Amino acid sequence: MNLFHQELYIHEDDTFTVEFLVDTTNLFSFDSAWFGVSTTPGGSYILQKANNNFNYGLFFGDITPQITTTIGDGTANLQVTTSPTTNGSGTGASLDIILNNLGKLSPTLGNCNVIVGGTGYAVGDTLTVAGATLGASNDLEILLSSANLPNPNYIPAFEGDIYINAFQNLYPPVLIPVEFFQNDFSNSAGPLSAGNTYYWELIGGKMISYSIGGGYKLSSQVMAAGTLYVQYSLFTKARYRP
Amino acid sequence: MPKINQNFTVFEDDTSPLLFEFSDLQENFTSDWGVWFGTFESNQWPPSVTPPGIWGTEIKKHTAWTNTGNGALTQTNGSDGNPDIEIVADDNIIKVYFTQQDFFATSGVASNSLVTNKNYYYELVTSPDKDEDTSLVAASGFLYISASIFSVANYRPS
After folding, report:
1. Chain B contact set for A200 (CB, 8 A)
2. In what order do the strands lie in the sheet with A91-98?
3. B2 in any annotated domain
4. For residue B14, which residues of chain A lie inside 8 Å, CB to CB?
5. Among B8-17, B46-55, B75-84, B103-112, where is mean pLDDT lowest?
6. How many CB atoms lie within 10 A of CB B29?
7. pLDDT tens, position by position, A195-233
8. How close is the nearest chain B Cα to the Cα of A222, in Å?
9. Residue B36 lies in a domain
10. Among A38, A54, A5, A12, residue whose Cα is nearest residue A231
11. How many structural domains are present in chain B?
12. In this complex, which of A41, A42, A218 lies closest to B156 when CB atoms are compared?
């Protein structure tokens, strides 16, 4: 059952956690959670909190079409899983590479699949696998295109202040803590001001496609919604919270 | 006993189920049953002013029916490829699943779909033998499509 028309009353500059016990099936700790606050119902957000499960880096799957420097003399039938280097700021991607029976890898020969997407990669970055890793005389180079990454506009920024605690594994409910800090409030240059009522939504999502062929697709649901009233704080007014 | 004037809110582009639980069935549902769910835009209750026959259905979801005025019906699916309505055999529950294709925000002008911030009258119709001859409006009411901060933020691509 979703939790709608929930009223939250908070004090300005408080550091606290709101915990939502949501009776939602099939939501795991590796799924997506997002909390957004707007000045109007269903309006543009002025504050958002998202976990890190919207962005898995490079799309999974066949990346051979983006090979720009091929392998022609590697070890025949070599299968290797390796982490490429990059000229950009991305880290953590992992490729599963299979050279063909002549030791070749190109957009039409052999296989090269992204099995771990890593983080921080961008369109235009070059991934490099050392030739020595493939028994070849030259390095493998792959130029990332927009086909390899989700549209960044679809991905909320990871702030590290919302989590999914699926404490019963498969079974509902799940606990979703949403953390608030002083920088969420106007006294610390944040968006929330005392004396105002805001509208909020809590979203749960499951990734249903994250691949080169299928693109990025998220199945999402408003699990809870309501109002948020920010009250003045005597403690703040007394200047105890600079 | 039909459940009338059952009102719900669904947020635009949500992937979510509506569960109808019937506590007064003489027997639980079986796989012989058929179910149909449809909506049209309206704020009127009871819907007596405008004859139902001229109402244009916005979205329809149904299991397989063997006989209706429009012939046999086949199971409809959501945008995730799974059945978007289910009558649970050996239980008293009917599940209606909403996926992004049901909403104007995703489907656009070309298709019948639910528009944000509007009210829709809905009907849930059942038949014990998938035949319109034995059909019954088992539940009806209003469905309100609420705007979503998450959608406005463009985090739900079509």
Report:
1. 149
2. A61-62, A111-119, A91-98, A79-82
3. no
4. 220-222
5. B46-55
6. 19
7. 999 999 999 999 989 999 889 999 999 999 999 999 888
8. 7
9. yes
10. A12
11. 1
12. A218
Domain housing B127: 8-152
pTM exceeding 0.90: no
pLDDT (average), residues B86-93: 93
| Domains of chain A, CATH where assigned | 3-55+153-237 (2.60.40.10), 61-148 (no CATH)
Question: Binning pLDDT at 50, 70 and 90, where does residue A26 land?
Answer: confident
Residue with tokens 């039938």: A77
Length of chain A counted residue by residue: 242
Search chain B and give the residue with CA nearest A55.
B155
A222, A227, A228: which to substitute to probe chain B, counting the most B Cβ within 10 Å? A222
Nearest Cα residue in chain B from A32: B155
- What is the Cα Rg of chain B in Å? 16
Residues B32-88: tens digit of each pLDDT: 999 999 888 877 655 554 545 455 667 889 999 999 888 899 999 998 889 999 999
Taking one residue from A and the other from B, the number of pairs with CB-CB distance under 8 angstroms is: 75
CATH of the domain at B96: 2.60.40
Q: Is there a domain that residue B158 lies in?
A: no
Residue B68 forms part of a structural domain: yes
Give me B141's structure tokens.
Answer: 């009411």
Tokens of B131: 């035949």
